[in-house]
Design brief:
There is one protein chain. This protein has a single domain (about 5-94), classed as ATPase, nucleotide binding domain (Nucleotidyltransferase, domain 5), CATH 3.30.420. The longest helix is centred in the last third of the chain and has 24 residues, at about 65-90. The radius of gyration is 16 Å and the shape is elongated. With about 90 residues, it is α+β, with helices and mostly antiparallel strands. It has two helices and four strands. The strands form two sheets. Strands 1-2 form a two-stranded antiparallel ribbon.
Length: about 90
Amino acid sequence: MGTGFIDTTGRYLSLPCALNGPSELALRGESGAHGVTLLPYFEEERTPNRPDATGVFRRLTTDTTREDIARATVEGILCSMQDAVVPLENTTLQ
């Protein structure tokens, strides 16, 4: 479940959190980043609730480029945001 807050009316507000991702460098990279992937949970992840998660890059090789790393970062962040949508979809506002 995401981090939850109660507003002044007593309604529940779930807050998905996301890191700011890199930019033009990622746009120059290919979709799929040549197999490089990022699990972007570098701190206590709140949405989804994974307080013990750790971040990791996978499939780095000597051929990995800066563009691959940037692209994997953006794609990893987008996937983590998708992961955060599920708890939001299951949240019922009163």
